[in-house]
Amino acid sequence: MSAQGTLFIISAPSGAGKSSLLSALMQDRPKDMQISVSHTTRAPRPGEEDGVHYHFVGQSEFKALIEKEQFVEWAEVFGNYYGTSQTVIEDTLNKGIDVFLDIDWQGAQQVKKLMPNAIGVFVLPPSKAELERRLTGRGQDSAEIIAGRMAQAVSEISHYNEYDYVIVNDDFDTALADLRGIVRAQRLTLTSQTHRHDGMLKGLLAESL
């Protein structure tokens, strides 16, 4: 029985720090973990590369992929489309690699319907004031866009109770340790350990007879 990866869904209001947490987490065991690269119609931000951070596509191409049912989830956020390929996720999980989806609550609901064993993690900011400070500190968005993100944050945060775990990102190192703990705990579940150590378990049971 081969090892099976775990699908993690990471959600948060924009500016809560989920992308930074995921980036730091990936440095721990890069061969065992992978952030799913989503498709999006939004323009690349400074430093983002096609195929690394996102698959940047036009709206017509994105809608064609929807019609072909290529996405496990997709959503329109702030006028842009985002979607996740189901085939890529399943192939990666079958290799024993944990997959992390950086998606919103709408996408999380869609994924949970198709893949109910996915583990949901919601990242919260410590306060609205801190969230606004982080969004402003990026220096990437206009005041109008930031105001829109702050308004949307309340709606997004209202769905925190649909997730399995909640992390408050007040201190980054503490939040990262919490995320690491969640991943570690999932690797120690009965299902995960049975898949990972199938041969060893059979040997131990045989010796006890």
From TrEMBL:
SMART domains hit by this protein: GuKc
CDD domains: GMPK
Membrane-crossing segments per the record: none
Pfam family name, one: Guanylate_kin
HAMAP family xrefs: Guanylate_kinase
Domain Guanylate kinase-like intervals: 5-184
Annotated catalysed reactions: GMP + ATP = GDP + ADP
Name of the protein: Guanylate kinase
Organism: Parashewanella curva
GO molecular function: ATP binding; GMP kinase activity
Listed NCBIfam families: guanyl_kin (TIGR03263)
Keywords associated with the record: ATP-binding, Cytoplasm, Kinase, Nucleotide-binding, Transferase
Physiological role: Essential for recycling GMP and indirectly, cGMP.
Enzyme Commission (EC) number: 2.7.4.8
Subcellular localization, as worded in the UniProt entry: Cytoplasm
Residues engaged in binding ATP: 12-19
Classification via InterPro entries: GK/Ca_channel_bsu (IPR008145), Guanylate_kin-like_dom (IPR008144), Guanylate_kinase (IPR017665), Guanylate_kinase_CS (IPR020590), P-loop_NTPase (IPR027417)
SUPFAM superfamilies, A to Z: P-loop containing nucleoside triphosphate hydrolases
A GO CC term attached to the entry: cytosol
Similarity section: Belongs to the guanylate kinase family.
